[in-house]
Prior knowledge:
51% strand, mainly beta, 124 residues, 4-stranded antiparallel β-sheet, 11 strands
Amino acid sequence: QVQLVESGGGLVQTGGSLRLTCAASGRTFSRLAMGWFRQAPGKEREFVGIIRYNGGSTMYADSVKGRFTISRDNAKNLVYLQMNSLKPEDTAVYYCAAHSSLFGSRSQRDYDYWGQGTQVTVSS
């Protein structure tokens, strides 16, 4: 079992920045790829990005590439989502998820554990 808790969401103006944190407990965190997803009102949950088990590689959705950065601290069981140059269309509930493999995937169906989500609202 893996427990995930997101934090760091809030209200920010267009062009601003936020850093989300996902704290993990349970299974060996350092052996899990971690993903970030988001769900905007009235829309399906979508892929944001992933980071491999050792932080050696990341992958992002085209909509956030160049603005968002995922990192992790395996010693602290934490994964981060740094969001810069935020736009109103980034408004969503953001979820972190744990993938029971070293490398992860873009498909949310492949993720076994999910946090409760944190709201990010970007005002225009």
